[in-house]
Amino acid sequence: xxxxxxxxxxxxxxTVAEAIDLVRELRRLVLDVEDVEIVVCPSFxxxxxxxxxxxxxxxxxxxxxxxxxxxxxxxxxxxPVMLKEACDYVIIGHSERRQYFGETDESVNRKVKAAxxxxxxxxxxxxxxxxxxxxxxxxxxxxxxxxxxxxxxxxEQARAVVIAYEPVWAIGTGKxxxxxxxxxxxxxxxxxxxxETYGEAVAQTIRVQYGxxxxxxNITEFMSMPDLDGALVGxxxxxxxxxxxxxxxxxxxxxxx
Length: 257
What we know:
Layout: E1 5-9, H1 16-29, E2 37-41, H2 47-53, E3 60-63, H3 80-83, E4 89-92, H4 95-101, H5 105-117, E5 121-126, H6 130-134, H7 138-149, H8 155-158, E6 162-165, H9 179-198, H10 200-203, E7 208-211, H11 219-223, E8 230-233, H12 240-255
Parallel strand pairs: 1-2, 1-8, 2-3, 3-4, 4-5, 5-6, 6-7, 7-8
């Protein structure tokens, strides 16, 4: 059974003090929750403080991006060597990075390889925009992003990758995809290419999240789908109560507890 994973992407929100307050409240609220992996992804400036605040707890920490080089003249960037002191996870290829900062499938691939090489678990985001969705190109776009993002990565490393399916038109809009629709995309356009590359057994071990206006109100419906193993949560993860509720609802949907 794939262990469900919820990752809260805080984006450019929360000061260091606010971040510490949030995770202190969150850790209290999820103290009794089992069988769900919980991740928070604060901004770079809050990573060390959040990591310290969560030591000894079940909650893990992730970064929102990284560079593929270990060091060098890359002003403003953060390397995997720097991140691994405070992080377990790193989001790579989020649609906002692709849209606003020129992220490509090639750079995603380089970052995924670097993360794996340095013991970080990449959460690789894939998904179609509204124009592609309306043109019926979802399957083609998502499958291509999966193949190119994991190009050259052997099966034993691919097993560790978490993939987040985020229909771009649903991010921050309050307009979520339907649960059956998201599950179909994951089954056909994510697990399908994974099975072609690595075999069905490996494809069935890789965890795939849903991302895009996931909230306490709709998380149960998404988590009832067999191919969805968690969520990459945006706005709802900025409130400890809402995020904790999503964790609990995920545990109930996936394990019955």
